[in-house]
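Predict both folds.
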Amino acid sequence: MLSDRILGIDASGIRKVFDLAATMKDPINLSIGQPHFDTPEPVKEAAIAAIRAGFNRYTVTQGIPELHAAIRAMLRDQKQFEPEATLITSAVSGGLVLAFLATVNPGDEVIIPDPYFVMYKHLVTLCSGKAVFLDTYPDFRLRREALEPLITPRTKMIVLNSPCNPTGVVYTADELRMVADLVRGRNVLVVSDETYDAFVYCGDYPSMATVHPPTLLLGGFSKTYAMTGWRLGYAAGPKALISEMTKLQQYTFVCAPSFAQQAGIVALECDVSGRIAEYRRKRDLVYDGLRDAGYEVEKPEGSFYIFPRVPWGTDMEFAEEAIRNNVLLIPGSVFSERHTHFRIAYPVPDETLRRGIEVLRRLARR
């Protein structure tokens, strides 16, 4: 009764941890990848006003013109990127689904840096493609000598995620130029998932779209403005591809939530720099606490995750022991072909973070 494609997709390991969390009493939850602050008040008020004004029906599939204009202005000002076309999507996840379905044929190869966001490899499976993993260990950087041999005549797409979930790495302009150089003259689409572009702690943030304008850039409102439940994002890139993604959206998501589109215009005007500074401090707190306890760990440059190496055992064995000590975290193999690391999400109150660090310090001494 079930399709081969769905049988080839495992349930997300993150969902399994979320289900476990629901059964625990007051866990120290370092597993949830969403901001711990609330949506800005002006955004909430804009949504309420839109609902009360009757803005509750379908919009045009591609999204309302006012939001398109605001996103284009933001991309021009912040990334010096003027895309051929834009599309309002049902969050970045919706944009990823549309992009993969519009481009990947059975047998096509999609290069994914490892570690990776959990959705990527399963979307390749959904499209009957082949995921080709680019090993970025131990420091999670992109290297020409590792990437170049993976590009074949069957390569259709390279997926980049910067700042990265789960590692927190931010790719440098030199790394991005290297990728652009390797795909130039080939029929290879670069998809740049820039969900966490506001959460950067290392100075300038280079966008792949700035370096390589044929990029399909995917961005959203979920993380920056604490709007994870609003399902609002955008795609920006080549006109021919955006047109096909828009056609697919008509037959799948139909359109992004109408009231959220109105609120998104207001969100783009909100200053979240104070929150970013807060998360930089949390980054330092967890990094220093783990490093001082002897963990092998790269300092995150962005996002709100850190990806330490397990001090003993496999990632699953370590995660199970952490859970027995009331700490919820995600085994690294959820995001990787390796079983050597684990992910901590640090958008939590400081007290929760300190309690979790103390347990992890104890576990490292086992």
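Second protein follows, with its predicted structure tokens after the sequence.
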Amino acid sequence: MVYIEHVPARELSDYIAAYWIRKSEATAESSGRRVYADGCADLIFNAGSSTVYFNPKARAEEVIPLDPRRLYLGGTMTAYGVVLSKPGSALRGIRFRPGGFYAFYAMTMEPVVDGVIEFHDDDLKRLMEKEVGLPDRLNNWFGSLSLVGNANHDFSAIARAAYRSGGKTSVDMLATQANVSHRTLERIFKQNVGIPPKEFLQIVRFQEVLKRLRQARRGNGSLIISEESLFRIAVEFGYYDHAHLTNEFKKYAGILPSELSHFYKTGIAGSQYF
């Protein structure tokens, strides 16, 4: 399995996190890959010859097909998911930062939470057909678009405030900083990411804990994780207790914090996204 990320042009970095490519060798075996909840949305083009399947764990029984030569929009996830690929699969994608997709398209994100829908844009699909030169083509494309979704509120500024707090700020504080009412803030979040601000803050906090656990790696690739260190992390990030941290982590990642060492050793954690 090969996973490649390209950084977008600087002027797009508030809205687009990465352009990415995920492909498997024709002789490889079928595989499954976790997708962690991160508050982002993705446009995904299946450039391969086989159908790829996505199982969002918030909809445990649902398996969504991503057929060849079609473009899809994957929304914000409230739990982890699993991508199931066959040999020779090839996906190309655009990962938008929280609110980034809405900024360009003004399409409310609530209907696509924990889901994937077909996105009809033949011009963009043609741009994503070839791997060579993909970042430059996408930079030119999005650089030419107007930010139609940010007419009233700058969601990127609201999201930055949430990230600066490590997810530990309150919804009331976010509303005060944005100079809007609690109800208006709820509406802004439903439009931009599809989920309430409280849940978004929980995902931000999970991502901060994930970052902290990655930083605990020794040089040999294992993780320094003990019950005591997990308890300290739980207290630092405002969890009620150790159990609260592990339960929320498992919801968003599909594994316990103490299980990360296995995934680092096998290489899965290095490219857990689409």
